[in-house]
Every structure is written in structure tokens, then in C-alpha cells.
Amino acid sequence: MNRVLPPLNALRAFEAAGRLGSFKDAAAELHVTQGAVSQSVRLLEDWLGAALFERHNRRVVLTPAASAYLADVGPLFEQLSQATARFGFPVSATRTLSVNASATFTLRWLVPRLEGLRARYPGIEVQVETSNRPVESLRTAYDVVIRGGPDTLYGYSTHVFLREERVPVCSPALLQRLPLQTPEDLRQHTLLHTSSLPRLWSDWLASARIPTLKPAAAVVFDHFYLTLQAAIDGVGIAIGPVALVSSDLEAGRLVIPFAQPRLKSRSYCAYVPADKAADETISLFCAWLREEGSLSGPTLR
């Protein structure tokens, strides 16, 4: 059989650069210089007789034809890796997954659990970047993007792993100073807000049937994790996501003064690019997320 195969090292550089959207990131993954990646891509372009990337300052964008080519080529490398592993050859001691998630979720839920992931799967390492940008607007390709949902996104599979509800939370010391018997007692307290989530308290107060309640004071933070930390420090009362403060509730750093009402919230979902759906390492990571989520999420009713 006369197979028509491109230069495989050049194809590997193209796959990494196309998947990551960066010659620099591809060089880091392949443990070569950025110049070597650029040279390999140029070699493949010469062999194919067509441009593969459009250069835009410090980033590169696949041409439409190259994007279609990558969709076919990318899974082949994963299949080759898995076939070699099944044969019994130790392909690599570790595999690094690139994950993008919000800062609050990363700090309060994911980071505390990464040591458990490492202990269970020593061959999986996680490189996390934080962002709140919509999945479709991310300029870098990631193995897993964690956002609210579930949403149906073109080119991604959706994996719900953590349910969420929101309730008032505060430090036990604060309640000792100013007890809360009923929601109306919030008039004596400072309510903590996050500028990016301006309706949390108004929605909760409306659900509690006291929409016109005026608190003693209000403090606004620009990041949600700062709002939660202020609640732990006794500055005031925040509307907290149950799953993200579960460890604080268990440790007694926070308490829930009112069991009801609870605001329904979007679940946390792992969005995986369609061309990585068969990746066994990513599947293991998503399964681990679901297992951890079942242990820390609120009870569903």
C-alpha cells in the first residue's frame, strides 16, 4: 500500500500549535524552541502547498482549511498514544491537562481537591487558568473549560458535575454579636455584595417576601471570593454558593442562619472540545469532577 504521509514531526508541531492556538505554548508542550515549531509548521505548509496559519501579532489562527485538517488529524495522535499505551509501552509518566475556570470556583473548590486528584491519578497534572469569559470567546484552546450550565455549545460536549444553590452565610462570631432569629433581623446587619452579581441579595430578599428591607449597611466587592472571605472574617452576611463554601460550613468558619429560602443557581459543568471527547485522560478527570461534585453539592429536592 502506497500511503501518502506528511512529515510526522512537522504534523505533530502543527497539531500542538493548532490545538493551543500558540507557537509558544506548542513549543513548551513539545519541549522544543518556538523557532523549531515555526520551522516545522513552515515545512508542513511547503509539503501541503498551502498556508495553515494566519499570523496576528503574538497569536496564530488556523485557516478554515487547516481547521478542518486539524479536526481529522488531532484525534489520530490521541488514538496512537492510546494504542501504544494498550500495547504496554510507558508512553509518559505524566499528562498535563489545561483547565480554564472562574477564579472563585478555582480557589474555593478546585484547588483544595487537586492533591486528592494527584494522589489518585499520579500521572495527571492540571494546569489551571482563571477567567469568566464565555467559552466561545476564549482565545486559547483548553482540554476542559468549567462554567455554569448546562448549555449546549457547538463543538463541545457538556458534563454536569456539581449542582448549586445559594443561601445567606456568615461567621458564627457575627451571630453571637447580633443574633438572627428571622430574616427581618437583617435590618441590623451589613450585607455583602459582589459587583458582578448585583441581584443576589435582592432576589433572596424577594424570595423571603421582604423585598423592601433596608440593611444597616452594605459593602460591595469586585470579586466574589473577596465577598466570601469578608463573610468568614465577620464583616457582614453574604449570599454564598453552598457547594463552594461546603468546607467552611463543615469547619465552622461559616454558618447558614436561614435554611430557606434557597436560590436555585446554574450547575457547574465541564465543557470538553468535541475533538477530545475520546481522550481517556480527560474522561478520567471529568469522572473525578462528577464524583467530587456528588460529595460536596447541595442535596437536590
TrEMBL record:
CDD domains in UniProt: PBP2_GcdR_TrpI_HvrB_AmpR_like
Q: Where is the HTH lysR-type domain?
A: 6-63
Which keywords describe this protein according to UniProt? Answer: Activator, Amino-acid biosynthesis, Aromatic amino acid biosynthesis, DNA-binding, Repressor, Transcription, Transcription regulation, Tryptophan biosynthesis
Looking up Gene3D superfamilies in the UniProt record yields: Periplasmic binding protein-like II, Winged helix-like DNA-binding domain superfamily/Winged helix DNA-binding domain
Q: Which GO terms describe its biological process?
A: DNA-templated transcription; L-tryptophan biosynthetic process; positive regulation of biosynthetic process
Pfam families hit by this protein: HTH_1, LysR_substrate
Q: SUPFAM superfamilies of this UniProt entry?
A: Periplasmic binding protein-like II, Winged helix' DNA-binding domain
The GO terms this record gives for MF are: DNA-binding transcription factor activity; sequence-specific DNA binding
The entry assigns this protein to a family as follows:
Belongs to the LysR transcriptional regulatory family.
Instruction: Please give the name of this protein.
Output: HTH-type transcriptional regulator TrpI
Where does this protein come from, organism-wise?
Pseudomonas abietaniphila
